[in-house]
Amino acid sequence: MTVVAMGMPAVRTGQPSMDGRPDSPLLIDRFGRVARDLRVSITEKCSLRCTYCMPEEGLPPIPADELLTAGEIVRLVTLAAHELGVREVRFTGGEPLMRRDLEKIIAGCRAELPDIPIAMTTNGVGLEHRARNLVAAGLNRINVSLDTVDRDGFARLTRRDRLDSVLAGIRTARDAGLAPIKINAVLMRDTLAGAADLLQWCIDERCELRFIEEMPLDADHEWARANMITAEELLAQLGRHFTLTEVGRDDPAAPAERWLVNGGPATVGIIASVTRKFCGDCDRTRLTADGRIRSCLFSDQEYDVRAALRSGAGDAEIAGLWRGAMWNKWAGHGIDAAGFVPPERTMGAIGG
Prior knowledge:
Blueprint lengths: L1 E3 L5 E4 L13 E2 L5 E2 L1 E5 L28 H15 L3 E5 L9 H11 L5 E5 L8 H7 L3 E5 L5 H8 L4 H16 L3 E5 L8 H10 L3 E5 L18 H9 L4 E5 L8 E5 L5 E5 L12 E4 L4 E3 L6 E4 H6 L4 H13 L19 H4 L2
């Protein structure tokens, strides 16, 4: 195994250690978890600059020749489903709408995998112009990142005045058949007072809202446990406006705990990644835009599948590399550990 130092995550080439791994085609790890949910980042570029995700100037650009091509993405996604037991695929960024060939990528995956759910996480900017074509290409579901419906608050948080475009994109996507749309909102001190307004907007627009505890994945490295908004603090805030009844998770691997709002049928979810961590049930594997397998958001250990792909490796060799990468997955993110160090890559570079 060779480790390449790049001032970034430790990039490993060659076969990872498989010591003690049982003979299984699935993406199992040493703790008994099986990864079936594939997150594919397809670009580092984004049309917004959310403070918890990206620096104001954006992320360093990935050279064009280091970015996975549409054909390479389709091949790897197909391999993951056919050889490794992946049962769901989600495209992320950066912002996936920044890829002009996004429809081509989705259509290619759909042609190879007619029965696999294909989803996308987006900030919604420009979605109104592409939603129908994305559905025609084979997209099934969509999550939109929206932290507030207050225009001034949105502009401060994202460093861009694009709220109108996001709201138009959500409505167009819903009308194009992507309902129910899930809204992802990161819990921030500046937007907590407007949390009830956001929930009411989602109820009125027939969207499913999920709040997410802020994680130490910001580019400015200003995250502090003492300053973050917790799930309990959010529940107290929402409880002043709504009656919430806990219903729990849909399944153990689902990150969001859910509450009925005013007796239902509307619900609100909370992904308490920090204070109610669910690492023990994690079923995700990640592929970065520059072609590296990443087993955990918080692990800087990455395996270079692009190099194997471009050197002529067959599916069996690539599948073996992927299995080894996941076999060596961490037990958990370790945020509460005394020696915790945030990962080198930010959320925008890893993919949500």
